[in-house]
Each structure stands twice: as structure tokens, then as C-alpha cells.
Amino acid sequence: MIPMARFIKVYSPILVFSVLLAFFISSPHYSQNVSSLRQLGQAFSGMLTATVSINPLFVTIIPPADAEISKPFSIDVKVENRGDAKIEELKARIYLPDGLFLVGKDAEKNAGVLQGEKEKTVSFRVRAEAVGSYIVSVSSVGMVASTNDMIYSDDTAVIEVRSQGQPKRLNLFTLLSSYLQTILNML
User: Fold this and answer.
1) Which of 62, 91, 134, 170 to pair with 155, CA 20 to 30 A apart?
2) 8 by DSSP, 3-state: which?
3) Tell me: the pLDDT tens digits for 73-127?
4) Where are the beta strands (DSSP E) in the chain?
């Protein structure tokens, strides 16, 4: 649903032009209005422009293979530039739920510059207070060098933390979310 203010801003020139066009065509003095219509078209040219761009920035959480309680583990974040232009001022930020804590102070890391069709991995050291499933989110922001456009991407994953020595269990939710994430990344 388009907010009304945005609708008016984007579509009002189109509506005005359409109404005036209908008026000129339906007028009994159509031939006299052709030159006026041409002038109207010239007045509206350049007013309607659209820019379409595809976000080349993708970020994916790589959950740790073994996350045990009270033992620091790494949550890796793969940051990809799927475009041709380089991305500058690239940063990655992690958002942790209650029960997970950063080992260190930086929830945001500077990833620098990422050339086109390249990827980087940023790691965050984390420690868990309790056994359980935790939903972790990451976001990445950067600027496309050629256009100065700011771009953003994010991802969410479930991190399974188990007690020390406990065998790894098969979690259906984790398997399904990984499978869906793989499919979405292929699109």
C-alpha cells in the first residue's frame, strides 16, 4: 500500500497530464488544441523520471558448528558484493539477544572496501550464559562508490548453544531455516 503523500508526489503529475490530455482530446476544437498539447507535453518532459537499482550487498550469518555454554565461539558473517561497482565504508553489526554476550566491545566492525564480485568474512566472538536456541541478527551497510548510494542488507539465524560435552542434536527448525536461506540466496 502506497502512503497518500507519496502517492500524490509520485502520481500527481501523471494524473494532471492524463486529465489535461483527456480534456484536449474530447474538446470540439481538437485540431486547435494539438499545438497546446505539444506544449503541455514539453512542459511535462523531464518531470517524470525513475531510477531502478539492484542492491548488490548480501550478508549471511554462518552459525558456529559447536557452540557450548560459557565457552567463547565465533559467529561468522559473510558479506558479499554481487555487483560490479566497489562498495566503500562497509560495516557489519551484530545484534544479540539476552543470554549471548560479545567477547570484546565492538558490536560493529569496519569491513573497509569490497570490490565487485568479491566477499569478505567478519567474525564476532560471543559467549553464552545458558543452553538454548538464540536468534541472532546481523546487518551490513556501505556506499556504492560509483553512485554514492547507501545500501543495506541483513540476515537472521538461530544459534544452538549446548552444554559442555553434550552431543550435538538435530534441530528441524535450524535445518529448515538453513535450507530456505540457501534457496533464497540462489534467487
Assistant:
1) 170
2) helix
3) 999 999 999 999 999 999 999 999 999 999 988 999 999 999 999 999 999 999 9
4) 57-62, 73-81, 87-95, 100-102, 108-114, 118-128, 132-144, 150-161
> Cα-atom radius of gyration of the chain, to the nearest Å?
26
Does CATH number 2.60.40.10 belong to domain 57-186?
yes
Which SS3 state, helix, strand or coil, does residue 89 take?
strand
Q: Alpha helices, DSSP H only, in the chain?
A: 4-26, 30-44, 172-186
**Gap between the Cα atoms of 92 and 108, Å rounded:** 6
C-alpha angle 129-71-67 in degrees, rounded to nearest 5: 85
Q: Is the pTM of this model over 0.70?
A: no
At CA 37, angle to CA 31 and CA 40, rounded to 5? Answer: 165
CB 117 within 8 A of CB 82: yes
Question: In whole angstroms, what is the distance from residue 162 CA to residue 133 CA?
Answer: 9
